[in-house]
Amino acid sequence: xxxxxxxxxxxxxxxxxxxxxxxxxxxxxxxxxxxxxxxxxxxxxxxxxxxxxxxxxxxxxxxxxxxxxxxxxxxxxxxxxxxxxxxxxxxxxxxxxxxxxxxxxxxxxxxxxxxxxxxxxxxxxxxxxxxxxxxxxxxxxxxxxxxxxxxxxxxxxxxxxxxxxxxxxxxxxxxxxxxxxxxxxxxxxxxxxxxxxxxxxxxxxxxxxxxxxxxxxxxxxxxxxxxxxxxxxxxxxxxxxxxxxxxxxxxxxxxxxxxxxxxxxxxxxxxxxxxxxxxxxxxxxxxxxxx
Length: 291
What we know:
Layout: H1 2-19, E1 26-33, E2 36-43, E3 48-52, H2 63-70, E4 74-78, H3 95-105, E5 111-116, H4 118-129, E6 134-140, H5 151-161, H6 169-177, H7 188-207, E7 231-236, H8 241-253, E8 258-262, H9 269-272, H10 274-286
Parallel strand pairs: 3-4, 3-5, 5-6, 6-7, 7-8
Antiparallel strand pairs: 1-2, 2-4
Helix pairs in contact: 2-10, 3-4, 6-7
């Protein structure tokens, strides 16, 4: 009887030692930042990866890569202000400060930042302001603060957004879902995801006022040389010319960065080719210097 008790206690001690301090398998919640609630999710364990979504879709844009990467890494994503489960901003705010507070709340000291489109711009700004917290930048069709857009880019946005002037949410969502630059291939699953998410979040997006966001000054366009973190840029071959120009500027400005063109894809590569993103991200992380 004594021997059984000793074995049982030993097993309990081993179990406690292996689980104590490890992050929950899957946690989510809200963080209050300057009076606005920001929704976040955290899963897995290992080296940290933070996903930063684009300017159209919320953090669900990462659904296809979330679980596969959570099996090997600690993965974190959140809805930026005004997207899906996070509240609209009501006063001036800083997106980089929001990101820092989310990471601090989750006790993440440093991570690889994975940013799509405007999420890539946020990742770049954060790497300039908080270089000690960035292990690497993995950018998907990123844009760059401080760099202008062409009239072609602006006209495309006006044309796609026009139905919202008449509160025609379905037509607006259809325009973006069928946009040849956003989804480059004949990927109906990806287009359906874009459509459904836009319809779901239309009311909030219509109210969103990005004029309240405080920007980095001088802008990142003038400060790329400050970034020392290893950087990989993915760009879909079907993406609009403006994004290709932004990616080239980032590639030129960040010394040692690499740029890869993904064939048969548009702007949201994580939706069109999630397996490609997972493969390249894991290879990128494996090559990073260990802290």
